[in-house]
# Entry
Amino acid sequence: MVRAADATGAAAGGILSVNNAEPEVTVAVPTKLQTHTGSSPPLQDAGWAVWSRRWPTWVPHAAAAWGVLFAAVQVTWAASGAAVPWSPDVAYARTVQLLLAAIAVLAAGACLATTRTLARRGRVMVAAALILAVPVSVMGMASLPAYFVMLASFSGVDSVTGLAHDLLSAVGAALLILVGMSYRRRLRGRCPRCGQDHAGGFDGPLAHPGPSVASKRTRVAVYLLMCGLLPWAGVKTIWTLGGDAIGVTAQGWRETNAGESGLAKALASVGIDVTVLAAVAAIFLLLGLLYPWGQVFPRWTLILSGRRVPRLLPLLPAWLSSVGLSVYGVVLLIYAPLSATGVLPKLKPSGGAFTTSSGITWMVAFGGLAFAGLGFGLIAAARSYSARTRPICASTATRVPAPSAQQSSSASPRQRDHDLRLE
# Structure
């Protein structure tokens, strides 16, 4: 799998700031959970511990500890000659592992520096270190979707060191982004936890918006992106059902996948490919990010019904998988037409199910459509979910921008009346 960095605004810890020119109003938030009067079911909290509310305090230290651990692991692997795969056929070079260790140590020092008052030069150095370390960590976790499919299908893991590297990179990316986000908020004189301008600390309860649906523009975009799955899932379903497609026979497909786990073979016997099943799980996640049942547990969840869904429950798998899927899909979409036209070396079958160059080229193109569609769909849905569910500190001095007349007139009654829920 090809790894690449996803240059996003999150890498720099970017956040949207409130326009100070807008009129402000003071919102008094009651100290107890408000009684629900709308049509949506009341939200109940999931019982987060107090320490989670104080994450801006301990996240820099946790990120520093991660940097030291990550550096130690990389140096150990480099010294022992352990193979850490960068792609199925290429492993990290020893010099690259040592460079990753150095970047992790640099990031650890920058995270600890965010707990102090720094001069302008110090702030610039901290920002530069985080801007360097975040994309490196994001690039290092790009293979997580492939490992997830392997684990979910009980097919085993190609490389334990590769899986460990991706997991460590994912943890580091999350911690470093939180450090950068909270630090930038502090520099702007805002609450490091919610990003708003209010008096008091940031270890009190949070006020959560009521459940809502993603905008029509976001829903349409996600649906169109999901359509990219159809060619890829279609040919795989044809093969598992015993048909032939794009020059590949069902018999050749079964022989190529003879070494799969018992679960994968059992699913294939009823016409279900395990990777298509994983794509269905991703679609389920996408729909949860778009609709209210992804914010409050629905009735079929039994004892969880009516409780608020923790934000990280859908957001973590969405962000962790979207990076690798989107980058890998774009690479395949670029490579397939360039290979077909002779700009790049033509894809040649290496045995197994694919016997023609055109067949493997079509499958690479279909895979690019599927992976890029899922990846960018998850990014769009996760961004919408994150914005719609972002809580604020439940302080009686919290100030929020007053809506404009146009926004007030265009908002639905449900949007105008949505309640804030306390964590």
About this structure: DSSP finds 15 helices and seven strands in the chain. Residues 101 and 183 are 23 Å apart (CA to CA). The first strand starts at residue 24 and ends at 26.
